[in-house]
Task: structure prediction
Amino acid sequence: MSSPELTTIRSPIDQDKLKKFLQSVAPSPKVHIGHNATIPSTFKEIQQFTFGQSNPTYMLTAPDGRRFVLRRKPSPNAKLISKLAHAVEREFFILNAINVLNSESEHTVPVPRVHLLCEDESAIGYVFYIMDYVNGIQIKNPSMPEIAPEDQKLYWKSVIETIAAIHLLNVEKLISLLPASQFPQFQDVAKLKSTSYFARQIKTLNNIHKLQSQHVAPIPNFDTITGWLLKNAPQDPDKLTLIHGDLKIDNILFDPKSKTVCGVLDWELTTIGNPLFDLANFLQPFELPNRLNNMLYYPQKTTMGRESKGSVDFLYQKLAEYQQLVTWSKKDPKNNPTDLWEIGHTFGLLRLCVISQGIAMRVKMGNSSNAASAKGYASMYPYLSELAMGYVTKTKTTPSL
Result:
């Protein structure tokens, strides 16, 4: 439990050019100003956060003590291998739209206020945006072993309320606030309502799996797992729903005084889809094997995992609390996270398989940024596939790790 860590600058940024840009910033086709923005005219200090491997992230401190966060792409657009993997533009526009909706809604999502997006690479050499610094703490282990039980209840109450608030956002209004050029897939609302999020995602994962399997061993039982998911996956809720896309505890900042969520971060993967995915992604550790959790959250020790009745009971308690706040379908009472949990969890395991296989491919090709750590994750996908098959076959076996 700590505030995000800062270090000296590892990824260079031209501070003189940035100061010059801030002194004369004005809206233009390539410079976008956020809702209720207060743009710093200069800064007295700049540091880099330890997180932000994909998009370098910096703390700017203004002369009056106000703190801001700058996120930039790692390279100019022309040199990026995948622009989708570094979509800071999408993140800016999503955060800005949510801030507008927050000013009009009782269901507010705690996100940083964004101030400006600069798509003009001549300014500092990269596309970047600036937002408020959220003064909160990170809790990296969802079992919260360092936190008193009474405080855990308060943190979790706020987590569930925050997830519900995301899923209750007015998506039609949100779409109207987004530039069509950045969000072409959101423009055809009729098409969005006629297709299934899980079907779209499985098609995407299948394409990635085929590509990765040209370089490393395929995921065992991939076709069996995807076939079962397609057969059993639910329809999307009656109402179009925004999902975060990478919702997990280390993408949330907490206020240690009020014991509430004060910031939800990392919106690059957000889309319109099925909220079951966000819940499965966030609560997944409570049904993973305990030994795997102890590897993932090392050096902290945890009893969290499927072997513990208390862990699984806690998971279903959180699902029930969410259901008190959000109804997915008035026509189909079984379209709810409790009844659909095992489908969401199995999809989450399949997604982890594809991620692990991708790491294995990068290790083999020598493209891993942290080879020692990556090798451990690269070897996990056969194990994760066996876990997923336990739900497909209804055996729920726990393979040896």
